[in-house]
Amino acid sequence: MVAATLTVPVAVLAYLVRVQAGPVVDLDQSAVRVGTDLTREQPVVRALLLTWQTAFQARWVNLAVTLLCLWVWRRHGLRTRALWAFVTLMLTWGLNLVVKTGVQRARPVVDEAVAYAPGFSFPSGHAMNTAAAGLVVTALVWPLLGPRARVAVPLVAGLLVVLTGIDRVLLGVHYPSDVVAGVVLGFAVAGGSYLGYVGWSPVHPTDLPARS
Known about the structure:
- By secondary structure, this protein is an all-alpha fold.
- The protein is built from 8 helices and no strands.
- The longest helix has 25 residues, at 79-103.
- It has one domain (2-202).
């Protein structure tokens, strides 16, 4: 129910993007223009943004999360939780491609572009994948965390999502609406999947930390 509710505003936004609604398009284009002007004037910032773009590509983020899943499974015995995390992230990755193909929004066109990216623009794959990965990782390691870590891990995950969204706009490869849609969809898929997982198996022996 929560996931379905979150997808409603994304569907509305996708429709507005599809029909080129004036206010949305104007805001998006203004933000990209301002962002790329700023990036173009700051070579160091541009270099950092391009590095962030590469590091947070879905393939590298998902590889890191997959290795974490294996570690949580083998070291702590959280088999079903690790499997849930892996499957959820892979489904999110695939869903992004499906939605992009359905909406078919072109990338921003920027004079003196500071970066290039292939494919369609809506929703942002970087933002969607990072949002899903942040929630998946938080849920995955939650049983292993102490009180302080249960505050720190979600905060760090949220910060990475925000910085990734900013990166996409400042590089001019995504509009703000692409980023917003990506983040909401990422949280919706991962959150809905976790609620389904908990409802299916609220207490499972392989979800308990292994005793040393």
